[in-house]
Write a structure and sequence with these properties.
This protein is an alpha/beta fold and 194 residues long. The protein has one domain: NagB/RpiA/CoA transferase-like (Rossmann fold, 3-Layer(aba) Sandwich), CATH 3.40.50.10420. Helices cover 17% and strands 24% of the residues. It has 3 helices and 12 strands, in the order ααββββββββαββββ. The strands form 3 sheets. A 7-stranded mixed sheet has the order 3-2-1-6-9-11-12. It has a 3-stranded mixed sheet with strand order 8-7-10. A two-stranded antiparallel ribbon has the order 4-5. It is globular and about 45 Å long. The protein starts with 10 loop residues before the first helix and ends in a 13-residue tail after the last strand.
Length: 194
Amino acid sequence: MLSRPVPTASKPEWRTWARAVRAELPDLSAAITVHLAAFLRARGARRVLAYRALPGEPDVADLAGSFELFTTRARFQPEPHLTLHPWDTATELSRFGARQPPADAPRVPLGTVDAVLLPGLAFDRFGVRLGYGGGFYDRLLPGFTGLTVGVVGEALVVDALPREAHDLRVNFLATETGVRRVHSWPSGHASSGT
């Protein structure tokens, strides 16, 4: 097992560590989904943007029986961005290996969604997400006022991750131990980046 990088290590170093840790974890999907369902119900969320899991990510598909789920399609023109579509339209494989809706699937505006569930390689206790490097969610979520929930195994929640000015934070973290609000920035911390 790789040793955990120092907080100032580069994102590629953190990604290497997180992938190695994730490869050793059991499937935590069922436990995480139970906590997510209770949390979303308690918050009154009905329309939820979820993700189609890549290998190793907690699979949240079981939420489809209790909520109106939507998922994303990655698009690359004119610049990389995500579009939202009904969950059951995800019938083709994306270049990343997850199921996605076809290009002509009906679109859903982000403003009609109550909550967004975000996968990640790791998160820190302040809600900073270590993604895969494409910046898709960072482009999607500015201005979104609903719930944002990072979904990850507890072993991949760390004290601090490197953060750039464009990196958005989630409000909550969902792990196999439950759903919790992220910590506030320490006093004097520049919230626009580190």
